[in-house]
Amino acid sequence: MRILLYTKNESVYSKSGIGRAMKHQVRALSAAGVDFTQNQHDDYDIVHINTVDPSSLTMIQSAKRNHKKVVIHAHSTEEDFKNSFIFSNQIAPLFKMHLVHTYKKGDMILTPTPYSKGLIESYGITKPIVAVSNGIDLDAYKKDEVKIQAFRKYFNLSETDKVVMSVGLYFERKGIHDFIEIARHFPHVKFIWFGYTSPSATTSKVKRAIKEKPDNVILPGYIAGDIIKGAYQSADLFFFPSYEETEGIVVLEALASKIQVLVRDIGVYEGWLENNKNCYMETKNEMFILKIRELLNHDCKDTIKAGYEVAKSRSIEEIGQQLKEIYERVMGL
Fold this sequence. Notes:
Elements (H helix, E strand, L loop, with lengths): L2 E4 L10 H15 L4 E2 L8 E4 L4 H12 L3 E5 L4 H4 L6 H16 L4 E4 L2 H9 L6 E3 L13 H10 L7 E6 L8 H8 L5 E6 L9 H8 L5 E5 L4 H9 L2 E4 L8 H8 L4 E4 L15 E3 L2 H12 L7 H10 L2 H16 L2
Parallel strand pairs: 1-2, 1-3, 3-4, 4-5, 5-6, 7-8, 7-10, 8-9, 10-11, 11-12
Helix pairs in contact: 1-13, 6-9, 7-8, 10-12
Protein name: Glycosyl transferase family 1
Organism: Erysipelothrix larvae
Pfam family, one: Glycos_transf_1
């Protein structure tokens, strides 16, 4: 059994969750001893598709012509397409039609969470759908003093500076406007949002929030490697106010980094994140403000250890074994 991990145009997605999911799959299959290739010209039994762009549709059609099995990883939904960039809400119904058209071509559909599985089932798709996490490389987020110092030096942080961080594109649904607004209530705390989206694609609400941001909000753009890993390990709080996700790889990265986590209480976390146990959850800005103040003052119990256990249950090694079992099941369809 050989798997073709179809990663053409991977560079286009490298700064998104889908791009990181592709990299995780390479490591997961390697860890599980699964025979795979990323060369579409090699022989294979199953092609694993992660995107819904034209090249992926062409690959699916080629696989079908050659009587190969097709696994489609459903990272996208209409719900997480909405409220992202300019005109995304107007385009969303057409995007949903495209998703349904593409997903129906799979012999099996994978998606990161039971929540996203439920959404895809609601589209009327009857192909087998399995929820399997994108996974997290625990070793990559182990505490490393060199990375911590690289982060603090890059942002010229003193030993006493408190930091609240987040990671994501400048999408409205990510809640970056709320992140900026909440930062106003903590003028002596650094609020750092890693990520970037071209101003030409951002909504007016996000544009206005960025233009009027207070001085304690730092927007360094997309930064990879030691600096962002050092941020995860050094910051006082990971605050992710996203309104919609299919999983949220950055949340797994935070949990693996053993940082305190605060997220918005939304459906995607049901069944794996629990308020006051392995993270903290709120819904409205005024409640976020109160909770951040408590967390920065250490007036809440520490949920870091329990949060790390969640990350361990979604380790690359665990996901590799799950994918191996799924491929074996697909071969029998």
